[in-house]
TrEMBL record:
Gene3D superfamilies: Aspartate Aminotransferase, domain 1, Type I PLP-dependent aspartate aminotransferase-like (Major domain)
PANTHER family hit by this protein: AMINOTRANSFERASE, AMINOTRANSFERASE CLASS-III
Gene source species: Ancylobacter pratisalsi
Protein family (similarity comment): Belongs to the class-III pyridoxal-phosphate-dependent aminotransferase family.
Protein name per its UniProtKB record: Aminotransferase class III-fold pyridoxal phosphate-dependent enzyme
Signal peptide start and end residues: none
MF-aspect GO terms: pyridoxal phosphate binding; transaminase activity
Keyword flag DNA-binding: no
Stored NCBIfam families: PRK06105.1 (NF004767), PRK07482.1 (NF005684)
Keyword list, A-Z: Aminotransferase, Pyridoxal phosphate, Transferase
Cofactor requirements of the protein: pyridoxal 5'-phosphate
UniProt-listed InterPro entries: Aminotrans_3 (IPR005814), Aminotrans_3_PPA_site (IPR049704), PyrdxlP-dep_Trfase (IPR015424), PyrdxlP-dep_Trfase_major (IPR015421), PyrdxlP-dep_Trfase_small (IPR015422)
């Protein structure tokens, strides 16, 4: 047993990994633990020296790429100067005040204040409490239900996990809690009726949302939460007209809009926020991931004027805002975010995501559109997905037992590329660092082509394609 085998064994005996078959991992029968040692640019390296192109930027988060020393130095500088002080009762640091001002200037809509946490999940947990607090304070204590979308992903804590519209985040864990309602996923490819245009389909989704609100009673519905581009549920850009139609309904019934910008924020879709691209005017915004490019954990809730004015005004009656974490506004997180956002702005990573994302989508379309098992190729900015189907003409899915998506992802990995098999169908997802250049995009496409060919050949040989 060498040094790395010993580390892998230690891991097996001690770590409870997320999204892992625990028995296989603990017993050693599952895949060998992969020890990630280092990374630079768009490539990660394991302890055995194998290099992989990270076509998913970790978990859609390392937007500025790996190994950016300026961020490491900003973290170190702040740690030497002041590693920690809390932000309760008006305490602050220069980095925190600067970051907050900057976020408000970058953000869409009319945002007033920024509240900090450490993860996308806790940001959305805070958003739910803000919705309840706001409606209690303005004398509407029944207006509390939150509508989320099927296949939306908002985290895995208790309320955020309940908002997440995927059963496997709920099963056997007593979720969802009550008070979370669900509305349809805006995926034209699967959801549209024959001949229905994107506009008509969007309007139908908005009509369904309206019917849901009316059925429950508008006086009981507090908020709607959604990602500008649906992410983990399949990387699904909204169909034409979707956000305009949805927002018209929300305004009609005084329902707050929470934009979950955890993936879309900070350039990923080619604009500073996803809301900018789709004309979304949120009341509340959640950000995480790209905020520090994951160099250190940090999330934030941007609180719009409408909500903030009510909660500020109420302080005389109800006392201080009684919500916050030990690490809210952590100075090292703030320093890392400022350094990461300096890079995003200086290198115009939103602009690069727009042009290189268009290149990525064009290459994927050009290469794979004719493949007999490709149903849809979609994307926006540096988010893209290929959805595989058994029968293109009749739009039928593969038998899930064939694991077509995971097999293509695995075949790509064996050739040096991480592209993620997404849940709900056979979907290969791409969300590379925003610094990925065209040559590296070409490499991704080449590896994907080889992986797709291998799995197509296997399916044909077995009589499944
Ligand atoms: N919202 C969205 C849109 C996300 O994609 C994620 C994470 N993938 C979350 C929230 C939850 O973030 P975290 O994993 O940091 O809790």
């Amino acid at each position: 047993m060498d040094h790395f085998d010993a580390i892998a064994e230690l891991d097996r005996q001690s770590v409870l990994h997320p999204f892992t078959y625990l028995k296989g991992h603990a017993s050693g029968e599952g895949p060998v633990p992969v020890i990630i040692e280092g990374a630079k640019g768009v490539r990660i390296r394991d302890a055995r020296g194998h290099e992989l192109i990270d076509g998913f930027a970790g978990l859609y988060c390392v937007n500025i790429g790996y190994g950016r020393t300026e961020v490491a130095e900003a973290i170190a500088r702040q740690a030497y100067k002041l590693a920690y002080y809390h932000s309760y009762a008006g305490h602050t640091t220069e980095e925190l005040a600067r970051l907050s001002d900057r976020l408000l200037r970058m953000a869409p809509g009319r945002m007033s204040k920024v509240f900090y946490g450490l993860s996308g999940s806790d940001a959305n947990e805070t958003q739910a409490k803000l919705v309840w607090y706001y409606n209690n304070l303005r004398g509407k204590p029944a207006k509390k239900k939150i509508i989320a979308r099927e296949r939306g992903y908002h985290g895995c804590s208790v309320i955020a996990g309940s908002m997440t519209g995927m059963n496997f985040y709920h099963d056997h864990m007593d979720l969802p809690v009550s008070g979370i309602l669900r509305t349809g996923v805006p995926h034209h490819y699967w959801g549209a009726m024959p001949g229905e245009t994107e506009q008509e389909f969007s309007q139908r989704r908005a009509d369904e949302l309206e019917a849901l609100i009316l059925g429950e009673g508008p006086g009981t519905v507090g908020a709607f939460i959604a990602e500008p581009v649906l992410g983990t549920g399949g990387i699904i850009p909204p169909p034409a007209g979707y956000w305009a139609a949805i927002q018209a309904v929300l305004r009609r019934y005084d329902v707050l809009l929470i934009a979950d910008e955890v993936i879309c924020g900070f350039g990923r879709v080619g604009t500073p926020f996803g809301s900018h691209l789709y004309g979304i005017e949120p009341d509340l915004i959640s950000v995480a991931k790209g905020l520090t490019s994951a160099y250190i954990p940090l999330s934030a809730c941007l609180v719009g004027e409408k909500v903030y004015a009510v909660i500020e005004e109420a302080t005389d009656r109800v006392g201080p805002f009684s919500h916050g974490y030990t690490y809210s506004g952590h100075p090292i997180g703030a320093a890392a975010a400022n350094a990461a956002l300096d890079i995003v702005e200086r290198e115009d990573l939103a602009g690069k995501a727009a042009t290189r994302g268009a290149y990525l989508l064009q290459r994927l379309t050009q290469e794979f559109q004719q493949s007999p098992i490709v149903g849809e190729i979609r994307g926006v900015g540096m988010l893209a997905a290929i959805e595989f189907v058994a029968d293109r003409a009749h739009k039928t899915r593969f038998d899930p037992a064939l694991k077509v998506g995971p097999r293509i992802s695995q075949a790509a990995r064996e050739r040096g590329l991480i592209a993620r098999a997404m849940p709900h169908g056979d979907i290969l997802g791409f969300a590379p660092p925003l610094v990925m250049n065209e040559g590296e995009i070409d490499e991704m496409v080449d590896i994907t082509r080889a992986a797709l060919r291998q799995v197509t050949d296997e399916l044909v040989a077995a009589g499944h394609a």
